[in-house]
Amino acid sequence: MLSGRHRAGETSRLGNLWNSAENQTKIILFWNKLYSRPDYGFGFGRQPFVDWNCSECRCYATADRSLFSQSAAVVFHLFGRRISHPHYRLPVRARADQIYVMAIFESPLRLFYNVSRYVDQFNLTYSYLNRPETDLFCPHGAILSLEKPDPGRMPSKETIRRKSGLVAWVVSNCKARSMRNEYVKELRKYLPVHVYGRCGNGSCPARECLFTIFDRYKFYLAFENSYCRDYVTEKLYRTLEHVVVPVVLGAANYSKVAPRGAVIDVRRFRSPRHLAGYLNWLDANDDAYLNYFRWKKRFFVKRRDTCRAAAVCKLCQILHNKRYGYKRHFDPHGYWDEDRWCSTGRPLRDIIHLNDL
């Protein structure tokens, strides 16, 4: 079995063979990293298509740009200093039938450049946006059913009584456009919120620190950096994996992306003061607090690597579907328009009840 890291001299032979009529193996080239993952959380070569139980396995995943001209599809992650540079241009297609895939997982407010420069250049979209325009849908997590209920997954009263803190928040972006910093500033007038990271006094440099926080505190502020439709990041799913109740601020429909009765949505409270009152009440009522974990008996959290694998599997399937409706005249700005999906400023203050203070 050949790996995704080719030996010198193999590139041309592999490309010509695998896109031949006899073999029909499609090469999928990951042009740049998906954050820190050059393999997009999927893997390299042919074997991952088998390991992830893809319905179509006649594909080969690689990050080797020397295979560009032989690639059936090229995936571009539209985030990062180089690809967002004003003078950056995508490579010219090697063939008219070569498919370009736009991968984008930051909110429209976090791109910091106009994606209209890429008009008519992409044929497929790969993102968290749960809309018909998205070809490869991949949220940051999912809630799946257990094979059978497991009451043992419910935390005990003894577990929650060992918690010594009430509310915690780890944050590094101190000027997020979701108004989360303004909301927390108001919330802290009515109850203690321990803030860790660059925007607070608490030190939390290591990832393991989060696990300590989840064990110690009853509530965690899973506040998004942008208030944009469908934008739900790992903050929510990471919190749900632990015995801590997420308090959420975001534009998602949380009844669809989280278990029923698992999160506390700030939009349901008339002000931060009213939210503080409710959190204090839950702190004093163990049974009511434990109700936020009843879902754990029937469901579990699946993180995004499985979703990323499913997206690459689907891409392979699409490449072998001669009737798939690829985008031919596609404007990324219309798809990723902040005015279409996001709220900021005074309208957002109204939504999260900061204007009535």
Task: Write structural notes for this entry.
The chain is α/β, with parallel strands linked by helices and 357 residues long. Helices cover 27% and strands 17% of the residues. The chain has 13 helices and 13 strands. It has helices spanning 11-18, 47-51, 157-161, 180-187, 208-216, 234-240, 254-257, 272-284, 286-290, 304-319, 332-335, 338-341, 345-351; strands spanning 26-30, 59-62, 73-77, 99-104, 124-127, 136-137, 141-145, 165-170, 193-196, 217-223, 245-249, 264-265, 299-303. A 6-stranded parallel sheet has the order 2-1-3-4-5-6. Strand 10, helix 6 (234-240) and strand 11 form a beta-alpha-beta unit. Helix 4 (180-187) packs across helix 8 (272-284). The longest helix has 16 residues, at 304-319. The radius of gyration is 23 Å and the shape is globular. The model is unreliable at 1-13 (pLDDT under 50).
Estimated share of beta-strand residues? 15-25%
The chain-level structural class is alpha/beta
- The H-and-E topology, N to C, reads as HEHEEEEEEHEHEHEHEHEHHEHHHH
Rg, nearest Å: 23 Å
How many helix segments? Answer: 13
Helix content: 25-40%
Uncertain segments: 1-13
Topology, number of strands: 13
Main beta sheet strand tally, sense and closure: 6 strands, parallel
